[in-house]
Amino acid sequence: MAEFLGERIEVQTAANSPRPVSFAWGGEVHVVAKVLSERVDTGFGSLPPRSRVWYNRRHRRRFTVQDTNGDVFDIYMDYARLKRPTWWLIGKSADTNWPISREFG
After folding, report:
1. Contact 74, 91 (CB under 8 A)
2. What is the pLDDT of residue 51?
3. Is the pTM of this model over 0.85?
C-alpha cells in the first residue's frame, strides 16, 4: 500500500551528480541502495493554458529509490533556485514495482 507523505527532507548527493546517496527522514538516515527511476519534470502541472509561460515551469528532478531496508521512496529535488535547491519526500512503499511518480504526480 502506498503512503503519501509530502515532507521536506535533507539529502546527501553523489559527488558531481544530483543522484541521492542518503536522506534523513523520520529520525533515521536512509541509505539509498538503488535508484529505480529518474526523470526531469519541467512541465506546468495543472496551471490553466493562459498561465503557461516559461517562468511558471516546474524545475524538478524526481527519483524513485530503494533504501537498504528494501523500502521504496519517491523523492524530488526542486531546483528552481539553483543556489539552494530543496528536496521533498512524496511517498513510501515496500513494493519495488510501485509507480509512485504516476500515482502522486
Report:
1. yes
2. 72
3. no
Residue 30 has pLDDT above 80, yes or no: yes
CB 86 within 8 A of CB 8: yes
**DSSP string of the chain, one letter each residue:** --EEEEEEEEEEE-TTS--EEEEEETTEEEEEEEEEEEEEE-S-TT--GGG--GGG---EEEEEEEETTS-EEEEEEE-SSTTS-EEEEEEEES-TT--HHHHH-
Residue 54, C-beta contacts closer than 8 angstroms, at least 6 positions apart: none
HSE at residue 61, side-chain half, CA atoms within 13 A, is: 14
Residue 66 has pLDDT above 90, yes or no: yes
Candidates 85, 100, 105; CA nearest to 35 is: 100
- Please count the residues of the chain: 105
Best CA proximity match to 36, nearest among 105, 104, 93: 93
Q: How confident is the model at residue 11 (pLDDT cuts 50, 70, 90)?
A: very high
